[in-house]
Amino acid sequence: MVYYCLWCEQKPKEWFSNWCSECREQKNLNNVYGFDRVLQIMKKCCIRSELQLEKKINNHKESIDSENNKNGDDQKDYIKPVLRSDKK
Ligand SMILES: [Zn+2]
User: Fold this and answer.
1) Residue 4, pLDDT score
2) Residues paired with 4 in a beta bridge
3) Would 52 disulfide with which of 8, 40, 48, 82, CB 3.0-4.6 Å?
4) Average pLDDT over the chain, rounded to whole?
5) Among candidates 32, 7, 10, 31, which has minimal Cα distance to 19?
6) 18: phi > 0 → left, psi -120 to 50 → alpha, else beta; which?
7) CA 72 to ligand 1 center in whole angstroms
8) Ligand 1 centroid – CA 49 distance (Å)
9) 44 C-alpha vs ligand 1 centroid, how far in Å?
């Protein structure tokens, strides 16, 4: 019989624990940064209105389109590293 995590109720819980490893990791982050701060961050970053989501999606589309229109040379900013064998 598989016992599921009491938090997410989707993954099997760890041995001698009521939580799965991912939820345990989240709880550890909460312990480090504080539950209020993590909740504040999650509300600010994860919860968006439909309008905000549409703006974000459109911004991504525009940036992807402009990236694709750059003359096709995606490695023009690449600087070849100087190797020890090059230095003589
Ligand atoms: Zn879990």
Assistant:
1) 95
2) 12
3) 48
4) 85
5) 7
6) alpha
7) 44
8) 27
9) 23
